[in-house]
Give the backbone structure.
Amino acid sequence: MAKAYRAPDAPRKVTVKSAIVFGILILWALISIFPVYWMLTFSLKNNAEIFGENIMGLPRYWVWENYTKALNVGNMPRYFLNSLIIAVATIILTLIASVMATYAMTRLQWKFRKSMNKFFMLGLTIPIHASIVPLYTTLSRINMLNTYAALIIPYAAFSLAMGILISTGFMGDIPYDLDEAAFLDGCGVWGIFLRVIAPLMSPAVATVGIYTFLQCWNELMFANVFISKDSLRTVPVGVQSLSGQYTTDWGPIGAALSIATIPTLLVYIFLSKRIQDSFIAGAVKG
C-alpha cells in the first residue's frame, strides 16, 4: 500500500517581534552568566591581572595554585563540611516541622488552627537579620554560642514560614476521601499522616528542601556573629577570613568563592525545573 506524500513543513518566518524578544533573552542570558564567568576567571588570576592588566579576559597565566591555597591555607574543606552539616540538619528539621504543622492546620479540626496559620505566616514579614541581637542574647544565656545548633535552629525557624506556605498549597490538593478511606481501614492520625499524606508530599518536600538549602548555605551574618571558633566556621565566614589586614592575595579568595558557589550552581542547574514545576503544582487547585 502506497504511503501518502507529505509535504515538508514550511520554515517558520522570523518576525521582527520574535527577533527582538530572542535578542533580549540572549542579552539577559549573557548578563546572568557573566558573573559566573568573571568569578571563575578571577579565581585563576594573580593580583596584577585582577587589578588592571586583564580584568575581563581569560587569564594569561592560569594560576591553579589559587585553588590549592584556598583548600590548604584557608582550611576550606573544614568550612565546607561545617556548611554541609548545618545545611542538611536545617533541611531535615524544617521539613519535619513544616509538613507536620501543615498537616495539623489543614487536615485536623481544632479551634485556633486558622489563627495559628496566620501566626506562622507572620514569619514571612520579619527580616532574618532583624532578630540578630535578641537571638545572640538568648543563645549566650543558654550557652549555645559556638555550636552547630546556634545556626541550625535559627535557620530552620526562619525557613518554617515558607515551608508551611509551600506545603499548604500541596496538601490542599490531596482529596479528603483518602483520609476517610484510611480511617475506615483502621489508621489513626499518625497512620494517615505517615502512610497517606507524607508519600504524596514528595514534590513539596523537594521544593522546601531546595529553598532551605539556598537560604542557609550562603548566609553570613548569623554565622559570623554566633560562631567565633575557627573549627566551626562555615564557607562564607571562611572566605571572609582569607582577606588580610594590609595585603590580600585575591586569587585564592576567588577560588574559595568558586568552591562555595559550586553546590548552589549544581542545585540550580539540575533542580531548577523541579522547583518551577513544584511551585506551579502547588498553586493550581483541582
The radius of gyration is 25 Å. The chain has a mean pLDDT of 81. Residues 169 and 283 are 6 Å apart (CA to CA). The first helix runs from residue 16 to 42.
